[in-house]
Amino acid sequence: MALADFDALVVGGGAAGLMCAIAAGQRGLRVCVVEHANRVGKKILMSGGGRCNFTNTGTTPANYLSANPHFCKSALARYTPWHFIEMVERHRIAFHEKELGQLFCDESSKLIVRMLLDECEAAGVRVETSCSIESVEHADDGRFALKTSHGRLRAPALVVASGGLSIPSMGASGFGYDLARRFGHSVLPLRAGLVPLTLSGKHQDHMAELSGVALPVTARCNGQAFTHTMLVTHRGISGPAILQISSYWQPGDDLRLDLLPGEDALDWLRRHQAERPATELKTVLTEAMPKRFAQRLCDIWLPGDRAHRPMRQFTPAQLQAMARVLSDFPLVASGTEGYRTAEVTLGGVDTGELSSRTMESRLIPGLYFIGEVVDVTGWLGGYNFQWAWASGQAAGTAL
Ligand SMILES: Cc1cc2nc3c(=O)[nH]c(=O)nc-3n(C[C@H](O)[C@H](O)[C@H](O)COP(=O)(O)OP(=O)(O)OC[C@H]3O[C@@H](n4cnc5c(N)ncnc54)[C@H](O)[C@@H]3O)c2cc1C
Question: pLDDT band at 1, cuts 50/70/90?
């Protein structure tokens, strides 16, 4: 089959790959994006409940997990949320801030994919969908040759933007990790992040009847804390607070919940004791959290008749013990729901072997890794797309 020559080949037509291709194409480079799914940007389409939380205006390097927390700084500083917002506004896509700096499309994620494809077209980027890669060769002259289902492609630069392992049904593959290893790169251990946690045994029994209940909590683990909603599911727990903390949790780690976020539990109990001495503890708790949750808390964690005693009957020591249950509630999770539902993959191509300015391999000139395949993972809230845009732009302007 004929060999088509390009200046750069980008594997993966997701957020990072398209962004990189646009930046390189705008500089006059001949770029081809190779996407094995039948359309580009499938994760963009399904993101943010179909409205794509495309960035977060409060993005800082502190919003990312990586073995090297400094690695993401350069790219994030050079391509900020405001750069992406400028593109969104130029394409007249209406958006709004939902909360905490999270920007969503008013209408649909489809508009973001359309915008990226329009930019690709304007920049002369060739996009090959339903195109599978059969082999990757690295010739002595430094050029990369891809044998694909659409023919042979060759270029002096190969950008790996094939994403992580989450949601295999959307085209996720381990391609980028395998390729990195083949070229001598280290891949740091992979695991599902931003993922619901599962409970088992008595811990699941305790929560089982509460499926569907949502309440605000502060979830704490390994020195991180997130205050947001927790949702009890039929297999475990989910909701933004749990998804966020899941990235910091591994089996066996101590995970604690503050069930009265923003309150000092002991002060709160003392206040109620002073102001409403005749009111039952259960009634007081029911006013602070969903009734079913308060009921279960009383049944299991406040045994005997304690929940039905009026507040005045509790000794200071008993109030202290109760405050501990409310502010430092131990949640024993057994695992995660895994890549089937995870929003991201933690770990990935070791940043120690990449340039933080260009994303180029320090081992193989001309080889680049961008987006989620790299060991940089954002919090929930638009940070992962911002990393995809920023790392894509960094490579696209350096190629
Ligand atoms: C349900 C869900 C909702 C999300 N919502 C948000 C959100 O609202 N905001 C946010 O910031 N982040 C969100 N994320 C995370 C975000 O989607 C990813 O972090 C981001 O898409 C990563 O960009 P990427 O370009 O590195 O990878 P991807 O966007 O995953 O793109 C990788 C591309 O490579 C292709 N590919 C893989 N293997 C091959 C191969 N062998 N050959 C050719 N092509 C290949 C894939 O088909 C895919 O198109 C969400 C994730 C999920 C799963």
Answer: very low
